[in-house]
């Protein structure tokens, strides 16, 4: 999948947020859910794309703050699980790894010694991981909503309407950020 182009993230994707994942302050993620506005007349494309979700870092994530440099990205989750080994085939996406909301997608180390685990935030099948960030980690920081995405997840069809339960709208997320700023001032 190609990441949304300039303006594409705003035009064709709805932003949803998961704040303080697993109780870790500011470790926030963004889920870009395809809105299907572009494909209203083509049923097959509507079926495929209205559910597609792109997992990215939210703007308040510590890795996107000034002074952080990404040292490494590792899709090896455990001794027996590598997200890079995810092999998907066919229109039913056979072979895709199934993810829960708290399934780790990758681990990212920064030059200051901190390590961050990036979580799926939604249930679904892992369609792909962004291998481009392995050779160019700066994409995560420079273009987190486009070329710097982490992974693409396809929720189950029957769960596609409820996939955003437990996620924040952009307005709700902005309120969370405002409360953080006010409490730290």
UniProtKB/TrEMBL annotation:
Its main location: other. It is found in: Cell projection, Dendrite; Cell projection, Growth cone; Cell projection, Lamellipodium; Nucleus speckle. GO terms for molecular function: actin filament binding; actin monomer binding. Keywords: Cell projection, Nucleus. GO terms for cellular component: dendrite; filopodium tip; growth cone; lamellipodium; nuclear speck. GO terms for biological process: dendrite morphogenesis; regulation of actin filament polymerization; regulation of filopodium assembly. It holds the Pfam family GCV_H. Belongs to the ABITRAM family. PANTHER family: PROTEIN ABITRAM (PTHR13651:SF0). This is Protein Abitram. It comes from Rhegmatorhina hoffmannsi (white-breasted antbird). The lineage of its organism: Eukaryota, Metazoa, Chordata, Craniata, Vertebrata. The gene is Fam206a.
């Amino acid at each position: 999948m190609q990441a949304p182009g300039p303006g594409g993230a705003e035009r064709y994707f709805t932003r949803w947020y998961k704040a303080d994942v697993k109780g870790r302050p500011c470790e926030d993620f963004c889920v870009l859910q395809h809105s299907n506005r572009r494909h209203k007349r083509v049923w097959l494309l509507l079926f495929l794309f209205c559910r597609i979700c792109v997992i990215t870092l939210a703007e308040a994530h510590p890795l996107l703050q000034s002074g952080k440099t990404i040292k490494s990205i590792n899709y090896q989750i455990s001794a027996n699980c590598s997200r890079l080994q995810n092999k998907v085939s066919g229109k039913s996406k056979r072979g895709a790894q199934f993810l829960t909301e708290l399934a780790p997608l990758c681990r990212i180390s920064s030059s200051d010694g901190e390590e961050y685990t990036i979580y799926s935030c939604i249930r679904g099948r892992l369609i792909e991981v962004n291998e481009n960030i392995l050779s160019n980690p700066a994409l995560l920081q420079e273009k987190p909503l486009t070329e710097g995405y982490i992974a693409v997840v396809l929720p189950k069809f029957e769960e596609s309407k409820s996939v955003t339960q437990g996620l924040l709208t952009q307005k709700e997320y902005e309120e969370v950020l405002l409360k953080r700023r006010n409490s730290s001032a």
